[in-house]
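HOLO CASE FILE
Compound: magnesium ion
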Amino acid sequence: MYFDLKPKSERENLFGGEYALNNLSEYLQDDSTRLIIIKGLRRTGKTSLLNVALNELKADSVKIDVRESPYFERKEFFPYLVEQIKQKIEPSFWEKIISKISGVGISYKDLALDFFFSKEENIHLFFQNLNQQLKNKNKILVLAFDEIQLLKAIKFDYFIASAFDNYSQLKFLLTGSEIGVLDKFMGKRDYDSPLYGRAYMEVELNRLKEEETKRFLEEGFRQIGKNISFEEIKEVISQLDGIIGWTTYYGWLRIKSISHEKSLERVKEEGKVLVKRELDLFLNTRQAKSKYIKLLKFLAKGENEWELIKYAFLKEKIKVADSQLGLYLKELSDYGFIEKQTERYLISDPIMLKAIKE
Ligand SMILES: Nc1ncnc2c1ncn2[C@@H]1O[C@H](COP(=O)(O)OP(=O)(O)O)[C@@H](O)[C@H]1O
Ligand SMILES: [Mg+2]
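Model generated. Tokens follow.
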């Protein structure tokens, strides 16, 4: 069923993902591809695609939802990662790896896992041995990280770069909603970045085209034995703009026998709370918060080309240098709140657009 709110993990519940899914599966099976990323704005179906691909994969895999992990501290994240790997591999396999790590002086058996693996040298020993054991068995292990950009702060990109170079049996599958931040993580155009120059494959998810939204709704309604009218489809398309997450939520409400109007209203109301929280998370760490808010309001009003924005600030007697404005626009687009289309800066999400207007 399409209209289930949880990220999908079965192929039959995934709408239209064949192309992306086939590409992804191919990369996952190809020995020479060891780093793969899934890109896309929030709620375009990255987690669903990742889940289905891992579910269908023959090789072993470990998925880390970074948002649910202790991602603020290296000393906490690595033991967590090892623990997740431990849970997915055979106990005998784990014993083999661990028996080879006598650590520096003290053995693993004497200490709790999280203490033992809070030491960098033990982590390296662990991955070295894990890789060796995988090699002996001629196996690959896929490590998947959902919302990887959150790990930039603990320099996890250095770990991936070193693992990529040294541990031939490990493969990495990464996703991120904040595309520019993800690009930064991957070292795109940045020679000083640890991951710069490592070959990776990319799968990108976009919002649905009108025709696709129509098909998604029609098929989704057929699955629940209901009908949706042409007028209703048109309204969903124009108000939710092909974002599959919002459209799924709309469908889920319709299952509960809530009317078309009320469902659409609720998606927008509840969505607004969600996008506000996401935006606040971004704004609260910026010094120029009030200027960002002004800027977003201008963009929402259609004052969205460089000269128009400059003029709008001028009219309100707010000083913003070109370099500052350039930075604000870049940050907003790196974090996936706006997109540049030709000369215009547009707010990516229709629900966010509405929230800002109010
Ligand atoms: N291809 C798809 N088919 C059906 N439902 C989907 C699809 N992609 C996403 N969804 C639904 O949309 C919502 C957001 O999906 P999710 O995978 O969490 O997106 P993201 O990880 O990009 O934020 C979820 O409710 C999910 O079930
Ligand atoms: Mg996700």
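CASE NOTES: The mean pLDDT is 93. The pocket of adenosine-5'-diphosphate (ligand 1) is lined by residues 2, 4-8, 14-17, 40, 42-48, 177, 244-245, 248 (CB under 6 Å).
CLOSED: yes
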